[in-house]
Specification:
The complex is a heterodimer of chains A (431) and B (81). Chain A is of the alpha/beta class and 431 residues long. Chain A has 16 helices and 21 strands. Chain B is mainly β and 81 residues long. Helix content of chain B is 10%, strand content 32%. Chain B has a five-stranded mixed β-sheet with strand order 2-1-7-5-6, with helices on one face. Chain B has a two-stranded antiparallel sheet with strand order 3-4. The chains are: A alpha/beta (431), B mainly beta (81). Chains A and B meet through strand 8 and helix 4 of A and helix 1 and strand 4 of B. The structure holds flavin-adenine dinucleotide and FE2/S2 (inorganic) cluster (FES).
Chain lengths: 431, 81
């Protein structure tokens, strides 16, 4: 049976990455009673998780957070039972968190595209494999192909190489032309933005191939090789891991469920990072993919604004503007090429939760129709993996998010009143 | 890092570094985390609690996301097999 706990905050922050940490620090330092909740075993979000090197930007911010007086909570927000209250689940504890102001800093996830063999064990996301290594997976002597698109590929390759992996190749689908253009833009940008472009030293000697993408992974029980389309030719590379991700998609499920207006797949915010819903702010990747520095500055602005420090918040607008321009370039450079829509074969699984194949999906007219008839997107990930993929493959628009935001255990729902409990039990399939 | 831990995966002992998640233990053990509805072996994909491909039974609790749970000494991990 789940235990229940109730806590009250003036400012509640959802997400413990750079954006959430900066927001919590600024609001707490301004004297507000702040709670910050994250669903991972350690704080820091996608980039800082598990990093503890003294003097690093990560440790400076986490130190500042610890001494700010903000309460650090572990749990995953999965439901809003009534206005200004959210439920968080962790192990056998359900926390009822009430707030006056809410800051959503839920970050981003990788975009995955289906191709033959992508469901084999040891084919992981690029950030996915990096996260596993941060959590203790040994890489010494392992052969890794890094593929997909985006600055994350370089950051991951450098990280894995530092941890003893042999990077066989980095395959980037973008063309030399767009990458060259991007590098020029980078020179004009004094700050570091995405770690990847600062890691040149670690990347020396690693084969980097633009105009390249994976067309198939093969192996008996785990991946043993990957076939790459490289400047029009096919090439097979033996490997122990394929780390493959196609840039990032914002995690907007919580903003969507709370009714925040969404524009081009991102939560729409004003100058002070306020969403369309009163007292709800949003910062970091859910407002658009922009890297760690933009997440930090948006977090600071949101935290200050939520604490009523408008003048201080406004003084950071200029810095944010520069970083946003850069984010736009990022989007353009790593836009997916149309050839990638041909990656899946008829029998390729697109929805991994329900094993729905490409041939069963391609004739449907919409995401909704496909969901109803094939169960695509109805499994445990709730369409977080296949949704962005089918959006790219078929130009389907994702539909609204139904609560719970994440699958919750049935015990966690005990104690809710009639209607909401019924609604949740239906969508969790009695788990 | 402090000293390694031992967990059991389907009864077999697996040694992992302290701070390792259950998903990491599964990859070290060379075991799939789950079998898909169509019968395919699956392992971790996202490493961040999104895809649920890493779900396993931990100390008798089914469907736990292995990539978000740290290994503890003596933990009992079981898969669909
Ligand atoms: C897998 C991955 C790896 C990356 N690696 C790098 C890298 O090496 N270098 C680099 O420069 N950039 C990297 N990035 C880009 C990175 O997202 C940003 O640079 C930066 O981490 C963004 O900070 P953020 O605070 O906006 O989001 P995040 O760091 O993503 O933080 C969001 C946090 O919110 C949590 N969360 C989400 N939903 C809920 C919920 N419902 N309840 C509770 N908690 C929730 C998430 O688990 C996460 O911890 C990576 C991105 C991804 C997806
Ligand atoms: S690996 Fe995706 S949820 Fe654990």
């Amino acid at each position: 049976m789940s235990r229940r706990m109730r806590q009250r905050f003036e400012v509640l922050v959802v997400g413990g990455g750079p954006a959430g940490i900066a927001a919590a620090v600024r609001a707490a330092e301004a004297g507000r009673r702040v709670g910050i909740v994250d669903d991972n075993a350690t704080l820091g979000g996608q980039i800082w998780r598990g990093e503890s090197e003294a003097g690093s930007e990560a440790s400076r911010w986490t130190e500042r957070l610890r001494s700010s007086g903000a309460s650090l909570l572990r749990g995953r927000i999965f439901y809003q039972p009534e206005p200004c209250v959210l439920l968080a689940e962790a192990d056998d504890l359900v926390q009822e968190l009430s707030y006056e102001k809410l800051i959503l800093a839920t970050g981003a996830r990788e975009r995955f595209l289906p191709f033959p063999g992508w469901t084999l064990p040891n084919v992981m996301g690029a950030g996915g494999l990096q996260a596993m290594v941060k959590c203790g997976l040994p890489m010494q002597g392992k052969r890794v192909v890094v593929a997909g698109t985006g600055p994350l590929l370089l950051a991951v390759a450098a990280y894995l190489s530092q941890h003893g992996a042999e990077i066989e190749m980095i395959c980037e689908q973008a063309s030399w032309t767009s990458l060259a253009w991007f590098s020029v833009a980078l020179l004009a940008q004094p700050s570091k933005i995405f770690q990847g472009f600062q890691l040149k030293k670690e990347l020396v000697g690693i084969k980097f191939s633009p105009n390249s993408w994976p067309v198939a992974a093969s192996g008996r029980t785990t991946v043993e090789s990957v076939t790459i389309s490289r400047r029009g030719k096919l090439e097979t590379i033996p490997c122990d891991y394929l780390a493959c991700g196609f840039h990032l998609v914002p995690n907007i499920e919580v903003p969507v469920v709370l009714g925040c207006e969404i524009q081009d797949g991102c939560a729409r915010v004003d100058d002070l990072q306020r969403t369309s819903v009163a007292e709800v702010f949003c910062a970091g990747e859910p407002t658009g993919i922009g890297g760690v520095e933009l997440s930090l500055i948006e977090g600071e602005i949101a935290g200050l604004a939520a604490a009523g420090r408008i003048a201080e918040a406004s003084s950071l607008f200029g810095k944010r503007e520069k970083l946003r321009l850069f984010a736009k370039r990022l989007d353009r450079t790593f836009r997916l090429r149309s050839e990638l829509t041909n990656l899946p074969q008829p029998e390729t699984i697109v929805c991994r939760c329900e094993d729905v194949r490409y041939s069963h999906l391609r004739d449907h007219i919409s995401w909704r129709a496909a969901k109803l008839q094939t169960r695509c997107g109805m499994g445990a990930c709730q369409g977080r993996v296949c949704g962005p993929a089918t959006q790219f493959l078929f130009k389907w628009n994702p539909d609204s998010v139904r609560p719970p935001i994440f699958p919750a255990r049935i015990e966690s729902l005990a104690g809710l009143t009639g209607d909401s409990k019924q609604e949740l039990c239906e969508t969790t399939g009695g788990r | 890092m402090s000293s390694p831990l031992t967990v059991t995966v389907n009864g077999a002992p697996i040694v992992v570094p302290s701070g390792a998640t259950v998903a990491v233990a599964m990859v070290i053990a060379g075991k799939a985390c789950r079998v898909s509805v169509g019968g395919e072996p699956r392992g971790p994909l996202c490493g961040m609690g999104i895809c649920f491909e890493c779900r396993v039974a931990i100390n008798g609790q089914p469907h736990r996301p292995g990539c978000q749970i740290l290994c503890e000494q003596g933990m009992d991990v079981r898969t669909d097999e």
